[in-house]
Amino acid sequence: VATPELPRIAKRLSRRTLTVRRAGLAIGLGTLVITVGAGLAMWLLDHEEFPNLGLALWWAVQTVTTVGYGDVTPKSDRGRTIATFVMLSGIGLVTVVTASITALFVEAARRRLRIESDRARDARFDQIEQTLARIEAALRERGPT
Amino acid sequence: VATPELPRIAKRLSRRTLTVRRAGLAIGLGTLVITVGAGLAMWLLDHEEFPNLGLALWWAVQTVTTVGYGDVTPKSDRGRTIATFVMLSGIGLVTVVTASITALFVEAARRRLRIESDRARDARFDQIEQTLARIEAALRERGPT
Amino acid sequence: VATPELPRIAKRLSRRTLTVRRAGLAIGLGTLVITVGAGLAMWLLDHEEFPNLGLALWWAVQTVTTVGYGDVTPKSDRGRTIATFVMLSGIGLVTVVTASITALFVEAARRRLRIESDRARDARFDQIEQTLARIEAALRERGPT
Amino acid sequence: VATPELPRIAKRLSRRTLTVRRAGLAIGLGTLVITVGAGLAMWLLDHEEFPNLGLALWWAVQTVTTVGYGDVTPKSDRGRTIATFVMLSGIGLVTVVTASITALFVEAARRRLRIESDRARDARFDQIEQTLARIEAALRERGPT
Fold this sequence. Notes:
Four copies of one chain form a homotetramer.
Chain A lengths: L7 H8 L4 H26 L7 H12 L12 H66 L3
Helix pairs in contact in A: 2-3, 2-4
């Protein structure tokens, strides 16, 4: 199994303390960026139904977040195709972001637990090595018989 | 990687047994608090479209939970801007809460598994230390030749 | 940290092989049960707006799954209060179920990895114990000098 | 606990580097496949309300992704029963996919961490075995007294 390439935002976040607040903020901002992209795409490619950028952005945010009020929806085949693409991307995005953030949280918690366990193990190894050093010294003291 | 700062509610939950029921309850209550905040904000800042607090709360709960019936929606730019903020916060919140709860569940399960493994390891270390103690005693018994 | 009390369905699932298919099925069935409960509650407590059980169930399924078409929605305060409760429970449920299933998947994968690691460790311990047994035998052979 | 049978797509993904981009793409494509299945089912089984395949697909994508605009909804009992099945499958699917992807991410991160820890452990074992070999050689050198 290869290492997952966590998104750059997540990596940056983990370098400076990954707090829950920062993770939530990053997700909110990331969603905003995708929303703006979806709104711009709809406005440019289905200009007849969405002549107003504000309207396209309002449609985009309720689509990407899966709220879907339905007060503004595309009626043309072209608009519905764009919307389908936006919805599928939205699902893919939310799932992957949730998985990445969860993995980062789990990894941080595990690292803490692992350090405790490894420290306990190393203490036992140290003790055994000291005993072995004493045994070796005792044998050497006598010299070859 | 730094340690994630799990929300205080989650930490409290984990101190007394983190049951699935309690986690679910905490999430439901947390969502309720955010809903009330969103409803109050809409009622105060877009008073023309939401003159009734009950209506604003009804809009807020279907927005934060991403149900989005669409029977009550803001039409003004101001209302839609507030709604956009609520939706983005909602997505950030749900994702981060899911990640935190999952990390807590995973950590609890791992701790149990780790304890078993560490106990097995320590038993083996104990045995080796006893053997080493016997060897050292045997060497000491003879004294320097 | 205490052990999370995974829901009984999840525990049962994990006893016999927890396949992805079974987990998905269990979630679908669990959601169905909650939907029927929500539909019955709406039909019994807001009988004026939902005189038909079929209609109440149709409302319930699109609410619990957060689809929220909005073709059937409560208009009275009583109905909206019940709906609020259903939505909050829905969010709590989906989050907790996702977290539990994820923890079960992670635990199963870890158990496999842990077994490999513990086996390697025990092989090394076995080797050391054999060497120690030979050393002790060599010392005993000579008898006290 | 048995090993979870991660979906074939996920397994394939993990064989060649599981990047976040690939995981997101796989989820988007998987959702598309289920959407097409749901749209075809609705079009075939509720032909009166959905005489147009395009309309059925448009309904399917907003249902599976839980956006639920509500501009196109089934009104007949037959159509609503099919829709209920699609919604429950959608919830089951999204939850299980999120859990699987998360488990894969967590496993990959853990494997990396585990390798570090196991390497440190093996270095200590190597050192102890070398010391034991020297002790044994020293004892053998003297021969039986």
